[in-house]
Amino acid sequence: MKLTFTVEDEAFRAEIAQWLRTNLTGEFAALKFRGGPGDEHMFTAERQRWEKRLAAGGWTGIGWPLKHGGRGCSIEQQVIFHEEYARAGAPGRVGHIGEGLVGPTLIAFADPEQQAKYLPAILAGTDLWCQGYSEPGAGSDLANVKTRARRENADNTWRINGQKVWTSLAHESDWCFVLARTDSESVGHKGLGFFLVSMHQPGVTVRPIEQLTGTSEFNEVFFDDAVAADLIGEPGDGWKIAMALLGFERGVSTLGQQMQFQNELDEIVRIAKSNGAARDPLLRQRIAEAHIGLRLMRYNAMRMLSHTSTESGPEALVYKLHWSSWHRNLGALAMDVLGPEAEILESGPYNLTRLQSLFLFTRSDTIYGGTSQIQRNIIAERGLGMPKEAKGNLR
Amino acid sequence: MEFRFSDEQKMIRESARTFLHEVSTSAAVRQAMATESGYDPALWQRICEELCFQAITVPEAYGGMGLGQVELAIVLEQMGQVLLCSPFFSTVGLAVNALVLGGTETQKQQYLPEIAAGSLTATVGWTGAATAHSGGQWGCEAISVEWQETEDGYCLNGDLRYVIDGHTADLLIIAARGKDCKEGDTVAWFAVPATAVGIEREWQPSMDQTRRLARIILRNVSLPDSARMTAQTDGSKLLTQIVDLAKLALAAEQMGAAQKVLDMSVAYMQERVQFGRPIASYQSLKHKAADMMLKCEVSRSAVYYAACVAQEYLAECNSQQAVLALREAAAMAKAYCSDTLFYNAGSAIQLHGGVGFTWEYDVHLYFKRAKASELYLGAAPAQRELIASMLLD
């Protein structure tokens, strides 16, 4: 067991830290600590320019293979990049869905022509992507998607009809990857396809969802005979590809996410010290518990990333349940440390402070990406070999 | 960065697991529980001869294996799984660290090879009646034995409580404060053969029967100069070091036990049928089991991280950064694993239903060990307060 990084890795750390110091200035200085979860709707134009700046510096697709235009960085270097990125307070990435999800998926499943068509614009930070998975009737039960894909005989294109929901940043995106039913008779995991659909066409309508935060990161997206530019793999491969994509989501970016959590905890600690909450025995316990939880989350992630085989260990199975519960508790702790001042808005009519936003937005952490209840089912069934939940037959 | 076991460490784990599951069966544990010593000397000798676990952290120069804290944690995890009744925790988890960190060269040469050979057991005693004040104090404020200089050495007087294996250990390593002094800097350490004149030892029967606690009364115990341990580090600092390493050792045991009660519960729920289906298929029970597994996995990360930190610390004891890193990592592991084992053992009783409440099933042994281990060296709130003081004060 070795917990330290090599000299080469530390040099890499110095390089990215220096680059961020030099570049996160001028018009980008205002973006520090902005645009993360709960704040994704802010500064989108500036953050798109920042994405291009990153691309120009060669800091997009750092984990992608060299032959696809990436930087081919090791896991350790990717971890370091995410740590330094978050430590510097660099803004939430508008390109993270393209870089972290679409890119790896296309590299694994698309043909060379499709790869050449989409990957360069993701790396350049020019094309933004959103995810078309959930539907009103397909939340936890994702395989229940009803959106249909129909092959048009006239021009041999696929046409998409249906509704997606909880689509982050759909209103800013150029492209959407859509899970849709290619076989209209099919049910469940079978008969699905994985499509790439341009958002800039008459058949696509985006409607923002007003969240309990008063802001709108999530959207409803309606497809009305929208043209799909590409089908990845074959009709019927959709579920396999969709699941592989979710696997890419739980990768190295987790340590960067933790650095952002650390920034939040640091602010709470700073407030507790200045307003006297640090002397309250019960708040001290909760602050210490938050600190311990975050540190242990980091060690869990280090275990995850140290796996030599492709098969993930039991610590990966519990990861989402752990961080989401921890983060939700942190939001409540922030309010309790602030006391009555926690209520006062940044400004009217409903502009939340960063910590208010943390408190409210973290209620979604235990819902999206698999609710805590679904996570517990998965842990019990895959991790402990307990019987699967029975399926009902209501459609 | 490689936060995973080496092949050698995996081998140690496998041999420990295989051997301990074979010998420390429920029947063996219950037999040991019924004895005054609290362990089976024949089994302890087998462990010493066949697996040499007692020598694991003894430096090679003193006849040991010279392995590190990670290997120690691996062995302790497996011992926790089967609630092994043995003087291992007291001898290796406490006394070997005390000798290695605070013994004189002569003491190391005298005692460590004997421990490594399996012919000597030892424990550390510092806790007096004051240990039970304020819900548990385990630092210098707990020290009750007083030392005085005499013409040809030292004289000790006092009353120790809660000393693990204190009534059976061959060697007692005792912390004492200068007579009439209350300051921590007068804390001194002594290596005392249990046969010394003036020592009276008595088993304190306890709720957790898988580990023995003892009371040791010292009445004018006179010791030669050579019994005093090194003064290189001040005595209170040595106590902190011993306690920090012991917290880690205890957390490793707790983590192993927490995994075991989860495994037992899942196995029981798969077998037990009610309303025509195994109760393992009920979602409320699955979710309880999932929470138990989460706590186990996070505990595992906590223990092995702390073990790595402890190993680095032992390599460079004098760095203040290493001291603080160990203190934090050990407190975090002890806090999290204490809560985990108590939660898991309590849940295991519930998941077993009525049979979980019987003497016949083993679940209660884990539940009782959970509370004992939680309280020893300070429960989670005390550990969290330590973290809070590092963070906030």
State the gist of this model.
With 395 residues, chain A is α+β, with helices and mostly antiparallel strands. Chain A has helices at residues 7-23, 44-56, 75-87, 96-109, 112-123, 238-249, 253-275, 281-305, 314-317, 319-338, 354-361, 372-383, and strands at 129-132, 148-151, 158-165, 175-181, 192-198, 204-208, 219-232. The termini of chain A are far apart.
Descriptive overview:
- The complex is a heterodimer of chains A (395) and B (393).
- In chain A, 44% of the residues lie in helices and 12% in strands.
- Chain A is α+β, with helices and mostly antiparallel strands.
- Chain A has 3 domains: 88 residues, Butyryl-Coa Dehydrogenase, subunit A, domain 1, CATH 1.10.540; 109 residues, Beta Barrel (Butyryl-CoA Dehydrogenase, subunit A, domain 2); 134 residues, Butyryl-CoA Dehydrogenase, subunit A, domain 3, CATH 1.20.140.10.
- In chain A, β2 and β3 form a beta hairpin.
- In chain A, α4 packs antiparallel against α5, α7 packs antiparallel against α8 and α8 packs antiparallel against α10.
- Chain A is globular and about 70 Å long.
- The mean pLDDT of chain A is 92.
- Chain B has 11 helices and 9 strands.
- In chain B, the strands form 2 sheets. In chain B, strands 1, 2, 3, 4, 5, 6 and 7 form a 7-stranded mixed beta sheet that branches. Chain B has a two-stranded antiparallel ribbon with strand order 8-9.
- Chains A and B meet through α7, α8, α9 and α12 of A and α7, β9, α8, α9 and α11 of B.
List the main descriptive attributes of the protein structure presented here.
heterodimer, A: alpha+beta, Butyryl-Coa Dehydrogenase, subunit A, domain 1, Butyryl-CoA Dehydrogenase, subunit A, domain 2, Butyryl-CoA Dehydrogenase, subunit A, domain 3, seven-stranded mixed sheet, 12% strand, B: 393 residues, alpha+beta, two-stranded antiparallel sheet, 11 helices
